[in-house]
Amino acid sequence: MSSAVLVGTQWGDEGKGKICDLVAPEFDCVVRYQGGNNAGHTIVCGDKKFGLHLVPSGIMYENVTPVIGNGVVVDPKVLIEEIDMLENEGVSTKNLKVSGNAHIIMPYHRDLDGAFEECLGKNNIGTTKRGIGPCYQDKMARIGLRMQDLLDEGIFRERCGIALDRINPQLEKLFNLPTYTVDQLWDEFSAYAERLRPYICESSLLLNNMLEEGKSILFEGAQATLLDIDHGTYPYVTSSNCTAGGSVTGSGVGMKNIDRVLGIMKAYITRVGMGPMPTELSYDDEFGHKLTEIGGEYGVTTGRRRRCGWFDGPIARYSTRINGLTDIALTKLDVLSAFDTIPVCVAYDCDGVRYTSVPEHQALFAKAKPVYKEVPGWREDITGCRSYEELPQAARDYVDLVEELAGCRVSIIAVGPDREQTIMRSWN
Ligand code: GDP
Ligand code: IMO
Ligand code: MG
């Protein structure tokens, strides 16, 4: 298998963890390239269920090297907790590697995440409050601390002092919050440094050496296309490039190495946090309620109820374009077995103009009225289907409609949360 990027195509929680875990054994390495512990990726294998936030979903296989790339923001405490959780469950983390260039989420980033949200009032983003935005902000402002800074007390103290000169006045004067000292932070972080020292490496070199040896890499995206800082529904986005392009900058690998881009697409839509969502259904609506409860749409990271809506064709087409998708993994098709008929959004009506992709300006998107096509449901259990041919005709038609709207082939179909509950159609 050649190298591939796996990317979320909607607003996150499409089932990236499941599909990544499923295809990981075809690769020698799985690398996370952006985001942080705002992500929550679920893996279900038999009676075991794991919710991963930082560690790549390839961790379940001993012969797959899991790498946290330079584009990720790492909360060392969360990483240590996740390593401990996995080891306690009998999953080895001995091959895990973390880029020395990955930025560190500091306690003040979490404080500021909460304070900025409060400051925005009704315009808040609905962040996960994990300090993601403020950490990327400091990275760009060139006052961040990186994983390699943990390895040298002098450098840590120097970098920390520079950061605190800018951060403390904000905490104190703008938000009336407690400030930090270098001594206090080194006390906490020196313990993390000792634990994480063996994992920290020059990951770009590691990955490129693997490629030179003819090995293959799977780039695991977190969040999704509509949450991308450049291509998402700004400002209601996360602070990184979640789209396929982020895979190269977030890992230090050349573009010529990527052969396929697999978009993970849920058979309907969910969103956590604020911002526009044209096909949203109210939780009080019979169908909205059913999608939420049958789909189990509650966040892995914050436990928040996800907003649910019907499949959005213009978003699918937009994601194909922005990411250069070569393949789609359509997930949670089994959840739609509960409906007699299924409305599918095939276009938007924005001020009387029809759009089959996301309109060029946010103001238009905010006004987008979905144009629905009602398709028949299948009303039977499909969780046991293992080929496209075994699916009821109406379910096959649904898959075909997704392909037509997205403009890309559906190569994998997930019909349940377990690894086994999957139809491999044309992925390999
Ligand atoms: P991610 O963030 O994209 O990895 O997705 P999450 O793990 O946050 O949310 C996806 C949820 O759907 C998890 O609870 C998965 O176990 C579950 N899931 C994934 N694929 C399927 C599927 O095909 N059918 C059903 N019923 N559940 C699925
Ligand atoms: P996975 O990888 C769904 C959303 C938050 C908020 C916005 C910004 O599991 O799909 P942030 O804390 O990143 O500054 O929040 O992004 N968000 C996610 N929504 N799934 C995720 O990750 C998300 N990560 C962030 O709810 O709206
Ligand atoms: Mg998730």
Describe the structure.
- The chain is of the alpha/beta class and 428 residues long.
- The chain has 3 domains: 4-98 and 199-261, Adenylosuccinate Synthetase, Chain A, domain 1; 103-196, Adenylosuccinate Synthetase, subunit A, domain 2 (Orthogonal Bundle); 265-424, Adenylosuccinate Synthetase, Chain A, domain 3, CATH 3.90.170.
- Helix content is 32%, strand content 20%.
- The strands form 5 sheets. The chain has a 10-stranded mixed sheet with strand order 9-7-5-2-10-1-11-15-19-20, sandwiched between helices.
- Strand 3 (41-45) and strand 4 (48-52) form a beta hairpin.
- Helix 5 (153-174) crosses helix 6 (182-196).
- The longest helix is centred in the middle third of the chain and has 22 residues, at 153-174.
- The N and C termini lie close together (8 Å).
- The mean pLDDT is 97.
- Magnesium ion binds next to loops.
